[in-house]
Amino acid sequence: MNTSDKKKTKELAQNLISEITRLSKIAMKENGGRPLRFMEVCGTHTVAIFRGGIRQLLPDSVELVSGPGCPVCVTHDDYMDKAIAYAQRDDVIVTTFGDMLKVPGSKSSLSNEKTKGADIRIVYSPLDSIEIAKENPDKKVIFLAVGFETTAPTAAATVLAAKQQNVNNLFMLSAHKLVPPVLNLLLSDEKTKVDGFILPGHVCVVTGTEEFDFLADKFHLPGVVTGFEPLEILRSLYRLCYQVANKEAKIENEYGSVVKPEGNPQAKAIMSRVYRKSDTSWRGMGEIPLSGLKMQDEFKEYDIENVLPLSLENAKIKKTACRCGEVLQGLIKPMECPLFGKACIPEHAIGPCMVSVEGTCAAWYKYGGGKFVFGK
Amino acid sequence: MEYITMAHGAGGKSSHELMEKVILPELSNPLLDKLHDGAIFAVNKGKMAFTTDSYVVRPRFFPGGNIGKLAVCGTVNDLAMSGAVPKYLSLGAVIEEGFPISELKEILHSIRMAADEAGIAIVTGDTKVVDKGAADGIFINTAGVGEVIEGTDISPLNIKPGMKVIVSGYIGDHAATVLGARHGLSLPDTIKSDCAPLCHLTKAMLDVCPEIAVLRDPTRGGVAATLNELAEQSGTGIILDEEAIPVRDEVAGVCDILGFDPLYLANEGKLLAIVPSDKAEEIVEVMHTIKYGENACIIGRVTSEGAGQVGMETAIGGIRLVDMPMGNLVPRIC
């Protein structure tokens, strides 16, 4: 970036900050002096907000809280226990995204099992699992299919490709989750105090903006879809403040270059061909109706839980003081958990929010955990 | 002789043959050729610097270097960062039984080339052979001595608020290359390890400004780890300018794919300097005229605020923490 571009970026940021300050102060007066509280739903936004140093620039009248948008963080203990049980079998190769390795199950983690000799391989795309399956015809290759609307279409495409190529030893352990239902549940809880949402850009590429209209229609809250550059995030905050100050509640799209109101019809079609909506459990929040994806009957021979059912005794979940559930719902900041930065650190995570780099606790910890003296 | 055998390490005829036919033809110099138990050399008055390091990189050969070049440059650079002119090096190798002699020759040749470039001589050495499976090919240790340049005093305690932070060029090249090679990513030819001896660069810098507070080569843990250590040791804060830090697009690309941050990647031919503010521009200008310093620039400043912490000024004018790297990010990279 040359000097004049640098100056321009800083100027634009300054202008947005002064508008955010002005509008949020107006809105704050009207709601009895409480700072405006916006939730960034997506873990990538959480990290981008820290990386951009955005919190340090915001006035006291605006507060940012993180939502339930880190796929690893919301993955339930039961799921990890199943993945571990499959990984322990000699006839199984587990393929997974790297950040699932350290997520604690009720007794072990995939990382522990890998050390003990389980064949667990990190892939960068679920499609890599097809090659692994072809190279190992005598093994069952199981992909840990987790993630939101962003990863579900590629997992679905992998199933379709496996079927087309007659690969019969590739399976999914599927626990995909959907963003709109969890936001709906959050807002139905009167403890939740949020004045608007920074909506997840990548998820909206697939879902479109229409699936988030209920935020405005049902809860009268604004939402802005945006990208991940610091200026884009500031602009979304400006739009949120503008709407609140003017008592508007609309879903705006500031990421129009890639997000369409109807989303990506092709990706949605692949998803609904392979999956149907079902109830599913979220870590720290319990079962949420129609918030997950199950494989359609047509593809049940690719569903490992159908092909090779497990009879796991109901694992006793260790009771700890971990407050990940409340962190995921934006009810508390990570530092309010008694374990944060003490017993629970990234090298030794107790809760899943400390595992993934996009986990709320891990991001707060990495960027100073409230003890960063240069800024707030 | 095609492969290293246990006999090569037994001290008898085979050991002698390895020395005469493989090692001496590459490393020969008057001090080494005597094959004494130790090298004897004269010293000038003044201070000496002494350092050692071991090298276990995997893969052993990577674009831009190999374990041999790394073993020379790493130790040479540790001496250079102490404000010394490197003079003599020792070389110890632990070799796994069955190691191809042709590969050993190639490594020795790289060692010689790097030593010549740095202007040092390898004056003593040792070879041990271990059973197959007891080592991963070859492990190398080097130790070096150098003469400290008169009038210099390199110490984190000399870091004072107001000083400037200089980096000698693009960061992360070495680790991105090694990681790329390890993960089978096909990288463009433009990105290779930066492995290089920096003693001529540091000499030129210290000639212009003997008051340089600190020189450091940001190897394992990268720029982030090095600056965090310095901030902690000196009890000052350091603020970096995000836009000023030189990172190649290809390295940024590898980082995106593998989920790393260039600030945390190891370098093997880069240095960080903390220098008096009024001399910073002049030092950078001189660096631009010396090999391996062509892309040097100022990337930050020392503050009294934020003692022990490193911050980064972002493009939009915010500040974020640059923390100490955690755990074993990238094992065995140097």
Descriptive notes:
The complex is a heterodimer of chains A (376) and B (334). By secondary structure, chain A is of the alpha/beta class. Chain A is built from 15 helices and 11 strands. In chain A, the strands form 3 sheets. Chain A has a 5-stranded parallel β-sheet with strand order 2-1-7-8-9. A 4-stranded parallel β-sheet of chain A has the order 4-3-5-6, with helices on both faces. Chain A has a two-stranded antiparallel ribbon with strand order 10-11. Chain A is globular, with a radius of gyration of 21 Å. Chain B folds into 2 domains: 6-148, PurM-like, N-terminal domain (60s Ribosomal Protein L30, Chain: A); 156-321, Phosphoribosyl-aminoimidazole Synthetase, Chain A, domain 2. Chain B has 9 helices and 13 strands. In chain B, the strands form 3 sheets. Chain B has a 7-stranded mixed β-sheet with strand order 8-10-7-11-9-12-13. The longest helix of chain B is centred in the first third of the chain and has 18 residues, at 101-118. The chains are: A alpha/beta (376), B alpha+beta (334). Chain A binds chain B through residues 1, 6, 9-10, 12-14, 50-57, 98, 124, 230-231, 234, 345-347, 357, 366-368, 372-375, and chain B through 237, 239, 243, 257, 259, 305-307, 309, 311-321, 323, 326-327.
